[in-house]
Amino acid sequence: MKLNKVKTIAGILLATMILFILPACAGEQNPVMPTMLDSIASEEAEKIEPQFVTVTYFDAAGDPHEATVPQNPTTVAIFEWSILDILYTVGWESTGIETLILPDPSSMPDELSWFVTQDFVLQGGTLHYVNWDILDLVQPELVILGMRSFAHNAAGETNSPEARVELQTHADEAYPDTAFIRLTQNSARSNLAADMEHNIYALQQIFPNIADALQSQLDDSFERLEYVGQRVRESEVTGLFVMVWADRMSFFLPDSRFHMIYDEFGFTSPIEELPQWGDQHGFDARAEFILSINPDVLLVLDRTDMASPTGGVGVANFIADSIIQSTSAAQNGHIYILQGNPWYTATGGLTSLDIKISNIMSFVDTL
Question: Which residue in 249, 264, 257 sits closest to 356, CA to CA?
């Protein structure tokens, strides 16, 4: 009897299960499934939905602006070597950029020459001129401008400040789906450390996948920069930054585009009364003037051969000058030739900063 009773109970349970299973087999939906599927679909939609961040940048006059920028853009134009240097230094493959518009590579620093042979790179103008035809073709999600951007027209003629503002307005109106921001180091008064921190922070927001790598690299470089600057300040030496051409030279002091020499790198100005800077190429100088102020250290940038770390005809003429040879810097072996592009066209790059530190370390090693 007990066995028959067990069989009866088992039969009832089986029948009950069949009653629940058959409607599902017949096409009726399980009331739990739609909720689960909707949740999964919602999560997937969130993954592919583009995210945007608000980035602060500064225009050519130094005025602050804000731009809404897509995170992890895959089509990007970069008209500032410093920014390309930063992204390349921390690992280009991690940026996720698939199509890149760059200026004419003729002025590209040697450290970035890898980009010249890459299939995903298109040439879209120069550091001074944006080729609108290429932008029309690619329709990039993000365009990063530098201080030189919009400075010239297609014929190479200099644009007025008003024309540069008009071009920025044109860019905003003609490319409503493209974010334009200006990140640069080539300002009238260099604030190297502060400007690099600002640019790194902006890039961290735009490319969150490399945020940690950016911060780590910046911290390491700043640690070395602080060490070099401290050693130079302790020495209390005067220094003069000189830029030479084949047939002329100019000098820079504090509050100029090479203010970093007297701020971050710690040299003392050989002149107490500073001139008002109005020319990005400095004040013209003669060898007699340099001898008259007689700085302890001469830091020389050769404008005639920007790609060569050993200098070209400009620096050769400078060093051969008998008056320059009479300076204390020359007599004591303290004329240092600076590597061109890291100081001039890619001032705020991470690799460029390390090269600048190495250049000044040549003097620190003598202390």
Answer: 264
